[in-house]
Sequence to fold (202 residues):
Amino acid sequence: MAWRGLLLAALWLAAACAPAQDGPRRVLLDAAHAQVGVTRHYDGSYVRLAYPGGDVPVDRGVCTDVVIRALRATGLDLQKAVHEDMRRDFAAYPALWGLRRPDRNIDHRRVPNLETWLRRAGHALPVSGSAPDYQPGDLVTWRLPGGLPHIGVVSDRRARDGSGRRLVVHNIGAGTQVEDVLLAWPPHGHFRIFREAAATAR
Fold:
């Protein structure tokens, strides 16, 4: 419970300190970065969640949980959004897990489902292999070697090699980290929810 209180406090500070001119994007970025050192483990176990607003213990999670927690700080609950859209049109979502109906405990924690919801909600952008096309607050998905789906949040921090390439906030196995992995694997999906604010961040 102490970890939950720490993360909630960090997310509240992110929202309270966000500049008015690009508030949602700033809140998203601060909330993503606030998970570093708090979410310390990678754990994809199935957990029965409260609804809406359900979460696994904040010291653990998977790559999607980084995105879910960051966007929840902006007021967007992906658990609720994905579940409601899947109830409207279950057949529009990937049939990869043998389910016959939506499961609000896990659906939003699966990368292919998030990709589908983001496209259906109008947030998709062209996928590119050029680092400057990705702006702070964007969401990027990849297929890792072996086809494993992965997702992360593009950071406003940059690589130290002078390239200007933006870092990524993600959890790929060692808890939430900020790492230089934007083009480590070919991007599979590119999404931007807060478009107007991102236009000022180039």
